């Protein structure tokens, strides 16, 4: 069973690799683009912290995707993940930073249509609303952070070299936090459809270290994301870091911080429970698009400066990718499920 499961899981791991290749640009793209952090340093930090985030913070978003469509056969889960991976890989190959969250949602809807299952409209609406809320909210947070940090720098009277030093350190810390948040928020996109069929058992290492079966699955997904970051992310990093808007070190820091905060808000189960306990509004635990978050932050800061310096051609191209990604994935998944079922006689859904 484990070998069969690992074979089917390979499509999810390929999706994880594609996500790493695509979304590393959202963690350190602005830092590398502003030449404050070397690509090698960015890749190492991202790889470590994305795994930690996946293992220790990935449960919330996985539950939400399961409610959208309970993919109940390994063959179906394999094709949902593979369809999303093909779409994200192709987009990354042409240098477009697209949303893995939108890709996996398109794949799940494609499976629902093929299997004759109903798509939970309330869950779909909640997920789709974050595609609008996420970039808007990140843009607002980025502007507030920019004003705050600008005021702090002005009052500190630091020498320019000292400012650059602190901003460089800030970029590394913020990038680590962002990588952790990305792993926690987006691991659901990688292996969420495999969670119900996971054969992994809990593992204890020594007296104090304990991993549940689901955390082992998250670990494999996190490693696949890291592999994508190290091997194939440089082209997309340079697209986001250099093409959308000219980056100053301070703007680069603000973009990474704003994105990290938004991803954390949409992935932290503990924060949600704290807010609900104190009768405060809480954010839904939904895998949001780190791509949309980072571009929302860049555009928010660009509009703050009157829209000058923003490459609107690249921006519109990326937005077109956001619209087309779920539709392309849905079509690939639906057609591929037909071939899996009728040509290869594989079970892709259970009644």
Keywords:
351 residues; mainly alpha; two-stranded antiparallel sheet; 76% helix
Query: What proportion of the residues is helical, as a percent range?
Result: over 70%
CA distance, first residue to last residue = 21 Å
Global mean pLDDT: 85
Structural class call reads: mainly alpha
Number of DSSP helices? 13
Write the element-wise H/E pattern from the N-terminal end onward: HHHHHHHEEHHHHHH
Uncertain stretches: none
Question: Which range does the strand content fall in?
Answer: under 5%
Strand order of the largest sheet: 1-2
Q: Tell me about the biggest sheet? A: 2 strands, antiparallel
Overall morphology: globular
Radius of gyration: 20 Å
Please tally the β strands and state the result: 2
